[in-house]
Specification:
The complex is a heterodimer of chains A (about 300) and B (about 350).
Chain A: H1 11-40, H2 58-65, H3 67-99, H4 105-117, H5 120-131, H6 137-144, H7 161-186, H8 190-199, H9 203-231, H10 235-240, H11 252-262, H12 266-297
Helix pairs in contact in A: 2-12, 3-7, 3-9, 4-7, 7-9, 9-12, 11-12
Chain B: E1 4-13, E2 16-26, E3 31-35, H1 42-50, E4 57-62, E5 65-66, E6 77-80, H2 92-102, H3 109-119, H4 135-147, E7 153-157, H5 165-182, E8 185-190, H6 193-199, E9 202-207, E10 210-215, H7 217-222, H8 227-232, E11 239-243, E12 246-250, E13 256-257, E14 267-279, E15 283-291, E16 297-304, E17 316-322, E18 327-329, H9 338-349
Parallel strand pairs in B: 3-8, 3-9, 6-7, 7-8
Antiparallel strand pairs in B: 1-2, 1-4, 4-5, 9-10, 11-12, 12-18, 13-17, 14-15, 14-17, 15-16
Helix pairs in contact in B: 2-3, 2-4, 3-4
The chains are: A mainly alpha (about 300), B alpha+beta (about 350).
The structure holds adenosine-5'-diphosphate and magnesium ion (MG).
């Protein structure tokens, strides 16, 4: 067999040279913090210090035995799956509606997308104001139409606070789902629907047999991205409730923050962060596996 | 099986008329071809018959029933799209079974699917997905899907245009045999005149949203209704020569050296200066200028290989055609009718 053509001498060097700035930045931004956190999770770090004596897995033991951790874990799952499920369902519904040709469609699209463009702080402050028990517009409206007889404690009751932050999160991020799904909906060839019309399919049958299979890969990918992002979403919850009332909305990232910057137990905070990371990792592995199976079936 | 009548259909997209006052009838069990250049409105007309588009004016009647406003599924038609529009996520089996399933067919779906797929010869590919099929196999799948529920009308929009030339030829042959076997009214859109001549019981030649001529392939070839049809059909097309506000036309294969004719025949004689000869194997195409009794203009002759003596390039030779092979068109390009032809001929000869 003939010798394959190889790179010219110097090609390889040039390639590494060209890549080196990116590699350096990646090391600085990703590898260094990760190694640091990993190292910190195995040290006992006192107040005011950034390192301390090596304690092995003691921090992990303490975190896992702490009821606050289990509570945060449970809250995280409610927060993530509650938010993503509602975002995906709402996003799909609205994308399907916006895909119908109607007058004002352009305006409707622009309006739908605005929450995504409003800075989180502004959005949270506005919602905070609307959620207010006494002067909030939400209670006022719901009472005016007679849906409730007493003001709801949107953020100040342990039973409602999680629902309220999920509401804000969904409001802020469902437009992302709408954008993603609208793109793929428009890519479905119109002839598929016309053929189905002639074949005699109903609207529901067209949705199941044509629309859903077409959008499924993008739908799953969007759900995956939303899951990751929602999992370590911190600002909305922290700004809305600070993790409260008591610990009703304390998710894992909020717990890490509290352990690190309220209790100043950096070692434990690092351990919690790594456990969080591991859980997310497992979640993603399961998810990617499911996605591969779904794609193989296509 | 059904008669399809298109009655004074006009279709406007905004201010633009894609179809203007078209009327035609697709006869029961016959193959009607809609032939015309790209953009002449063939697809639009077919889509109105299918119910995918509402005519601006006029009516569609299928099997004696006004269908203008009927939903596509209630017209009992089947359509094969130009790119087949198979459902990419379903297997071939499920693609073909789809029309039966969605209509809640109560009989043996499996038997019907096997029947339809074996008619087009894809019964061994049922577990595949459309993307694992060749163009020809996809086209057959689309056919099987459309015939599985016994439609009374078949609509086909350039179903062979995505196939390569060789496959197109055999697919055309199969399609024709297939249509004859199941004997269903078929309306077939194409821009390819060879396909149209080979397939059609009748051809409807369209241009710019209007029907130029409706007739059998022979009628259209031998007696084109106007200069558009004359120049659109035939390869090379009919020679058209303007003369004093009229146009005379003759087919290149009817225009031969004078020696090729029997001297007793009624001939029209002229001179032909050959400029270029194209060798096609069976035939030779001669490009050149006619002169003498006709106004000097470009013309083409198609000589079968049986004619031994060829004029050389650059020389002028005596050529002729039978008087009966000449067609006459008036100032607007419309064919001059049989009864008036005699008169017109005298003018040319005089
Ligand atoms: N939905 C539409 N909106 C506007 N114009 C259209 C539409 N569909 C077709 N047309 C126009 O109508 C004319 C005929 O189109 P079509 O029927 O597709 O031609 P053909 O199939 O003969 O190539 C074209 O000029 C095309 O641009
Ligand atoms: Mg077309």
């Amino acid at each position: 067999m003939a010798e394959p053509n190889t790179d010219l001498p110097g090609d390889r060097l040039l390639a590494y040279l060209a890549l080196s700035p990116s590699i350096a930045i990646l090391i600085l931004l990703v590898a260094v913090p990760m190694v640091t956190v990993f190292a910190m999770s195995m040290q006992h770090i006192s107040l005011g210090e950034l390192s301390g004596p090596f304690v092995g897995l003691r921090n992990f033991e303490r975190v896992l035995a702490d009821p606050a951790f289990l509570n945060a874990l449970g809250n995280t799952f409610v927060w993530v799956f509650g938010s993503v499920a509602i975002e995906m369902a709402l996003g799909l519904g609205i994308a399907l509606l916006l895909n119908i040709d109607f007058r004002m469609r352009g305006i409707a699209r622009a309006v739908i997308l605005t929450p995504y463009l409003i800075p989180t702080v502004v959005a949270v402050l506005t919602w905070h104001y609307m959620f207010n028990d006494i002067i909030g517009v939400l209670n006022y409206l719901l009472m005016a139409v007679g849906l409730i007889s007493q003001p709801l404690l949107w953020l100040n009751s342990t039973s409602m606070a999680m629902f309220s932050v999920i509401l804000v999160g969904v409001w802020k991020f469902f437009p992302f789902v709408v954008i993603a799904l609208m793109g793929i909906l428009q890519a479905i060839p119109q002839e598929q629907y016309e053929a189905a019309d002639i074949d005699g399919a109903s609207a529901l049958q067209k949705f199941w047999r044509i629309t859903l299979p077409h959008i499924m890969p993008v739908f799953l990918l969007t759900a995956l991205l939303r899951t990751i992002w929602t999992f370590h979403k911190f600002d909305i919850i922290y700004l809305m409730t600070g993790g409260g009332p008591i610990d009703a909305t304390t998710t894992l990232p909020v717990l890490v923050y509290q352990q690190g910057f309220v209790d100043f137990a950096l070692g434990r905070a690092a351990a919690t962060a790594i456990i969080t990371f591991a859980i997310l990792g497992v979640l993603l592995a399961v998810y990617l596996h499911l996605m591969k199976r779904a794609e193989a079936r296509q | 099986m059904a008669l399809v009548e298109v009655k004074q259909i006009t279709k406007k997209f905004g201010a633009y008329s894609a179809i203007s006052n078209v009327s035609l009838t697709a006869q029961d069990g016959k193959f009607l071809i809609l032939l015309g250049p790209s953009g002449c409105g063939k697809t639009t007309l077919l889509r109105m018959i299918a119910g995918l588009e509402l005519p601006t004016y006029g009516d569609i009647v299928i099997g004696g029933k006004v269908a203008t406003r009927l939903h596509p599924k209630d017209r009992n038609i089947a359509m094969v799209f130009q790119n087949y529009a198979l459902y990419p996520h379903l297997t071939i089996y499920e693609n073909v079974a789809f029309p039966l399933r969605v209509r809640g067919f109560s009989g043996d779906i499996d038997k019907k699917v096997k029947w339809a797929t074996s008619l087009v010869g894809i019964e061994h590919l049922l577990e595949r997905k459309p993307r694992q099929m060749s163009g020809g196999e996809r086209q057959r799948t689309a056919l099987a899907r459309s015939l599985v529920r016994d439609p009374s009308v078949f609509l086909l929009d350039e179903p062979l245009s995505n196939l390569d030339a060789k496959l197109r030829h055999s697919a055309r042959e199969e399609l024709r045999q297939f249509q004859e076997r199941i004997g269903v009214t078929s309306i077939y859109v194409t821009h390819d005149q060879v396909e149209a001549m080979g397939l059609g019981d009748r051809i409807c030649v369209m241009q710019g949203g209007v029907v130029r001529q409706l007739g059998t392939p022979e009628e259209i070839y031998l007696n084109p209704a106007d200069t558009f049809v004359a120049s659109f059909i035939g390869s090379p097309p009919m020679n058209l020569i303007s003369d004093e506000g009229r146009t005379i036309g003759f087919r290149p294969e009817m225009f031969l050296p004078e020696s090729a004719f029997d001297p007793s025949e009624a001939l029209y004689r002229t001179e032909f200066t050959v400029q270029r000869i194209e060798y096609l194997g069976g035939d030779r195409i001669l490009y050149g200028m006619v002169g003498a009794s006709l106004p000097s203009s470009k013309a083409i002759a198609r000589l079968p290989a049986t004619i031994g003596t060829l004029p050389e390039v650059g020389t002028t030779a005596k050529f002729a055609m039978r008087l009966s092979d000449i067609r006459y068109f008036d100032g607007e390009g419309k064919a001059v009718e049989q009864s008036r032809r005699h008169e017109a001929r005298l003018v040319v000869n005089g």
